[in-house]
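A.,

Following up on our hallway conversation. Structure tokens first:
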């Protein structure tokens, strides 16, 4: 079963989070569409140039099984001020589709109104202005929402995404190819 995933990229996104999510989901067999808010390359938070597959306007009306927002403060600020992203998140939530965000990006979910009354985690201080107290966990799943804390949790986050859309067996298979230390505690 092929899962369609949208990963929107905005200037200032956290490259470690974006690339980890894209890479691991593709390893699992997902059809990952990387869409820049604008056409052309995206300069990430540490200066890495990322080349999206397309721009958001070309896929904004398409449906996805999962929408994943990488963090990075600059990227999250641009995502939360983009009406297309807010509209897509609201529609995805209304249809109970999977939505995921890491680091600063859960603030985008709060801005879109999809975190109301939900449990979540994020980079410290990113949810305060919305009156949401983030949980102290690497990854939090609440119904159709998956959130994670930051760059250090990116691999666990991506593996949990694989787990929820493909199952434990596929997540374990992908993790097995990564040669993570056996002593590593998952999520």
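Then the amino acids I'd put at each of the 187 positions:
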């Amino acid at each position: 079963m092929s899962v369609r995933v949208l990963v929107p990229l905005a200037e200032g996104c956290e490259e470690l989070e974006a690339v980890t999510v894209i890479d691991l989901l593709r390893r699992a067999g997902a059809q990952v569409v990387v869409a820049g808010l604008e056409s052309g390359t995206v300069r990430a938070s540490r200066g890495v140039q990322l080349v999206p597959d397309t721009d958001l306007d070309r896929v904004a009306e398409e449906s996805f099984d999962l929408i994943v927002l990488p963090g990075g403060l600059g990227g999250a600020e641009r995502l939360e001020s983009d009406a297309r992203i807010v509209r897509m998140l609201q529609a995805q939530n209304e249809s109970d589709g999977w939505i995921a965000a890491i680091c600063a990006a859960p603030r985008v979910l709060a801005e879109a109104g999809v975190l109301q009354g939900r449990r979540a985690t994020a980079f410290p201080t990113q949810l305060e202005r919305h009156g949401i107290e983030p949980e102290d966990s690497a990854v939090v799943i609440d119904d159709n929402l998956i959130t994670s804390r930051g760059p250090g949790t990116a691999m666990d986050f991506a593996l949990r995404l694989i787990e929820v859309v493909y199952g434990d067996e596929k997540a374990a298979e992908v993790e097995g190819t990564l040669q993570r230390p056996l002593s590593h505690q998952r999520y």
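DSSP finds seven helices and nine strands in the chain. Curious whether your intuition agrees with the design.

B.
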